[in-house]
Amino acid sequence: MPSQRLLLTGFGPGERSEANKQIRALGGKFINANEYRADCTHIVCKNPSRSEKFLSGCLEGKWILTPAYLRDSVQNGAWLPEEAYEWSDSTPHVGSPLPLPNLLNAPKRCRMRVKNRLKLFRDWRVLFLVDDPVRKKVYSKLIECGGGQVVKTVAITRQGVRFTGLVTHAFYDTTYEHLASDLKKSGVACYEPVFIGDCILKDNSVKKEEKQLVRVDSTLTGKKRPLRFSSNIIESSKRPKVLAKGQKTKVAIRGCGFFFYRMSVV
């Protein structure tokens, strides 16, 4: 398998055809795909954007390079070192400043996180309250590329949601804001899906989340312990409560008959 496997984003059909010839001439492989492919090693990006390819590539620590990387490598007759061509607000290949500087700095910042084995969404267990299957698929891919896991949703209605597995975060459409409100009361971090992109592009958003993943319960030992939630189905108006280490109980969330949590301290 060629060591250089390139995925393109932002290029027109004619440009992609020409790039295919150039990549093959250099001994690389051109990946002709409209969606992100995890088997790529490099992404040549014409214009950074909050696209699936760009964001997924950031999350998996791929080289995200300017078009000059391919052009100069062809002139050189061999692949050049990538560092000088990585998208950044300081690279000479960027030209005039772009309106979203966080887009330019994300590739290197995320690549270094992955290199240090600190994937962005590690330890996240995510529930999606999203109706559109296409959007949900893209959001799910981003979470998984970032090292998180997507909780399987059995059913969603306006009255409640059924799901399986542990939950630390939920992303919801505005139509499910009332469900998100109940989840928040239980300690699950809830956001609209745009927050996923914000975490990738804005490092402060992730640092805030990493702090929030560990919560303090003063009724226990006073030490910080992470809380995790698993689901089932029940109808009740009781408020959630936290038990001592190792104990488990059935807890339901007020106002939502389908929510049921088994909360334990780990």
Strand and helix map with partners:
Layout: E1 5-9, H1 13-25, E2 29-31, E3 42-45, H2 52-59, E4 63-65, H3 68-76, H4 101-115, E5 125-129, H5 133-145, E6 149-150, E7 152-156, E8 161-164, E9 166-167, E10 169-172, H6 177-185, E11 189-191, H7 194-201, H8 203-212, E12 215-216, E13 224-225, E14 227-231, E15 250-251, E16 261-265
Parallel strand pairs: 1-2, 1-3, 3-4, 5-6, 5-10, 10-11
Antiparallel strand pairs: 7-8, 9-14, 12-13, 14-16, 15-16
Radius of gyration over alpha carbons? 22 Å
For the record, the CATH class of the largest domain is Alpha Beta
Question: What percent of residues are in strands?
Answer: 15-25%
* CATH architecture level-2 label of the largest domain: 3-Layer(aba) Sandwich
Q: How many angstroms separate the termini?
A: 44 Å
What's the gist of this structure?
The protein has 8 helices and 16 strands. The protein has a 4-stranded parallel β-sheet, with helices on both faces.
Task: Give a structural overview.
By secondary structure, the chain is of the alpha/beta class. The chain folds into 2 domains: 5-115, 3-Layer(aba) Sandwich (Rossmann fold); 125-265, Rossmann fold. The protein contains 8 helices and 16 strands. The protein has helices at residues 13-25, 52-59, 68-76, 101-115, 133-145, 177-185, 194-201, 203-212, and strands at 5-9, 29-31, 42-45, 63-65, 125-129, 149-150, 152-156, 161-164, 166-167, 169-172, 189-191, 215-216, 224-225, 227-231, 250-251, 261-265. The strands form 5 sheets. A 4-stranded parallel β-sheet has the order 2-1-3-4, sandwiched between helices. Strands 6-5-10-11 form a 4-stranded parallel β-sheet, with helices on both faces. A 4-stranded antiparallel β-sheet has the order 9-14-16-15, with no helix packed on it. Helix 2 (52-59) runs parallel beside helix 5 (133-145) and helix 7 crosses helix 8 (203-212). The chain is elongated, with a radius of gyration of 22 Å. The two termini are 44 Å apart.
